[in-house]
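Ops channel
N.P.: pipeline sanity check, posting one input/output pair.
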């Protein structure tokens, strides 16, 4: 009866743990999806900036061939180079943020993996195995208890027989000692 109550409590505990950690798992999954979306957005921004850089370089090349005034071309080159350097600096910063985001994503994945260790199916399988072991141990304990009770009964019967034999022996000893004293008296009288 107690073991059934304990099993019911274990099952309730398992359900509570499942309910408690499921929301955390869902939250972690949402965070991972958010980080993946942020990573995709940063990658798109990097691609857009790279295409802008490519377009600007193409424009510089195109303008240098079309414009006869070298001063104007040099001015445009300087402006575009400055913009390119700014974009490259922005690109480097974006790449750093992307790496940071990837590290955070890896950490979130590790944490999600740790949280998935509380697999309800595996816990139920372990619970079933433990129930079987408990049933086997209960049967073995019952057999041992029956054997112990039988041994105790046999021991008490043997003790009772020993007591009866001792009582008979004591009853026989006074009779034999009286017979010895009467033979001793006859020998003295003779």
């Amino acid at each position: 009866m107690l073991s059934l109550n304990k099993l019911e409590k274990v099952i309730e505990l398992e359900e509570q743990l499942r309910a408690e950690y499921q929301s955390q798992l869902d939250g972690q999954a949402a965070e991972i999806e958010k980080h993946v979306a942020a990573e995709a957005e940063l990658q798109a921004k990097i691609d857009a900036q790279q295409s802008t850089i490519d377009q600007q370089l193409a424009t510089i090349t195109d303008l240098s061939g079309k414009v006869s005034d070298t001063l104007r071309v040099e001015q445009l080159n300087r402006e575009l180079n400055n913009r390119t350097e700014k974009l490259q600096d922005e690109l480097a910063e974006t790449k750093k943020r992307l790496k940071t985001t990837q590290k955070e994503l890896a950490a979130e994945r590790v944490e999600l993996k740790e949280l998935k260790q509380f697999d309800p199916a595996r816990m139920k399988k372990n619970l079933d195995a433990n129930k079987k072991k408990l049933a086997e141990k209960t049967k073995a304990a019952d057999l041992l208890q029956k054997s112990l009770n039988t041994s105790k009964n046999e021991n008490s019967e043997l003790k009772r027989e020993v007591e009866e034999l001792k009582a008979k022996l004591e009853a026989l000893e006074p009779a034999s000692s009286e017979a010895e004293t009467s033979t001793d008296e006859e020998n003295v009288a003779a």
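N.P.: looks fine end to end. The mean pLDDT is 85.
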